């Protein structure tokens, strides 16, 4: 990653999110726009979920040790609840959660995000200045495969997401659903399902 990378990550966490909310115009929403957005919402949710499941199963098939650990995690959780698959059982599947997070790291639903710079921004320690209105591309795939953040990034390793390992990384080097007010609503499903 270039020297610009850390600054782009830091810039992403600034006050831009609140200002975007102020610029939303609800008068532009008619019935056709709402119907179109609903269709996109359901179509995108189906495709990204099915792709994530397919990539997850692919990685589990390639990694028998991880597959067995995931299987034990699922069986132990269900066994504790008299063989019933309940919401609480899923919440207890901590290793499965790590497997899903690693799948989303290695195979992010979107390879990049495009955002508009709301304010002129001087990148600290450089002569580079981003003018207001400039399009900024956030390379999600690049962040998720940067060895500075994820050593040996092509290796499927759910342990990257154990609490002690997550603490060593900048939180905005993991963006499978984007971040802020324009983040993919799919993140709510992951949070509520594996929360």
Automatic annotation (TrEMBL):
Positions bound to heme: 184
InterPro entries: Cyt_P450, Cyt_P450_CS, Cyt_P450_E_grp-I, Cyt_P450_sf, Insect_CytP450_Detox
Subcellular localization: Endoplasmic reticulum membrane; Microsome membrane
Pfam families, per database record: p450
Membrane topology term: Peripheral membrane protein
Protein name: Cytochrome P450 6B5-like
PANTHER family membership: CYP9F3-RELATED, CYTOCHROME P450
GO MF term list: metal ion binding; monooxygenase activity
One GO cellular component, as annotated: endoplasmic reticulum membrane
TM spans (from-to): none
UniProt family annotation: Belongs to the cytochrome P450 family.
Needed cofactors: heme
The entry's keywords: Endoplasmic reticulum, Heme, Iron, Membrane, Metal-binding, Microsome, Monooxygenase, Oxidoreductase
């Amino acid at each position: 990653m270039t020297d610009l990378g850390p600054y782009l990550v830091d810039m992403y966490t600034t006050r831009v999110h609140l200002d975007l909310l102020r610029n939303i115009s609800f008068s532009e929403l008619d019935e056709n726009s709402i119907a179109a957005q609903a269709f996109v919402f359901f179509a995108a949710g189906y495709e990204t979920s099915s792709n994530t499941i397919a990539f997850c199963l692919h990685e589990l098939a390639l990694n028998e040790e991880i597959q067995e650990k995931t299987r034990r995690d699922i069986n132990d959780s269900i066994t504790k609840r008299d063989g019933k698959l309940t919401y609480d059982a899923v919440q207890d599947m901590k290793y499965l959660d790590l497997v899903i997070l690693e799948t989303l790291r290695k195979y992010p639903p979107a390879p990049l995000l495009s955002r508009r710079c709301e304010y002129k921004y001087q990148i600290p320690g450089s002569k580079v200045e981003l003018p207001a209105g400039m399009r900024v591309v956030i390379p999600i795939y690049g962040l998720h495969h940067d060895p500075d953040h994820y050593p040996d990034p092509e290796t499927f390793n759910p342990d990257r997401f154990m609490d002690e390992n997550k603490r060593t990384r900048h939180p905005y080097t993991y963006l499978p659903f984007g971040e802020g007010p324009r983040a993919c609503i799919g993140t709510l499903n992951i949070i509520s399902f594996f929360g």
